[in-house]
Design brief:
The structure is a single chain. By secondary structure, this protein is of the alpha/beta class. The chain is built from 6 helices and 12 strands. Helix 6 links the parallel strand 10 and strand 11 (about 230-235).
Amino acid sequence: MQSTSQKVRKSRRNHKFKILVILALIALFFLFRYMVAQPFMYFGSVEVINAVNLTKQDVLLIARIREPINLFLNNNDEIKNNLKEDLRIKDVKVEYAFPQKVKITIQENKPILCLQSKHAFYEVDSKGVILRVTSNVKNPNIPIITGIKISELYVGEQIKVDLVVNIIKFISSLDEDVYNSISEINMNNEIVSILTLNRVKIILGKATDIPDKSETFKLVMQEIQAKKMAIEYIDLTYSRPFIKLKAK
């Protein structure tokens, strides 16, 4: 049997050993943190997928990262949160890809209309939120509203003008093919007209009424596209559409 003094000495040795193990683990932890922060550990690359209007450099800047990336210190949740703060981004997925890559898949919040004020142009989404402010038209692929100028706004603010809100609702309800055929939406004494890429004028009527005319507008557009009709203008002011054909 061990004497009391031997038990005490053994207990002290075990205690010292545990302390040494803990100190060693702490030292290894700090050594690891030091090593992974060294420049040679920054070797990862970033792949950006599905970005259309945003460049890779835009995405890196919004995510607050740069290449080469440190895969050990990288925080995918932080990158995702940083990206989702940008109004131009609707959704994002961030994941690792073997062996040394971070994949960022973007779903952009696309502008659907261009508005203008006295000094600037505004790209807005389907909710009327300002996505981008420019000094001139930067995106010719989206329709522009003419005949009305809004007050100066900033990125992130929402359009509150009822006339414009009704136009946004109308445009948002259109099929992609019909939407892509629109060049301009004009406001004249609260009467809304649409000009197509084929220079056909379509009078919708009062802005307060146009959200209810999207189905009629879609049917008329599909008909003239299918029949390749030579149209001078179309009037949808009243329940019965009036189509004026070009003189032969």
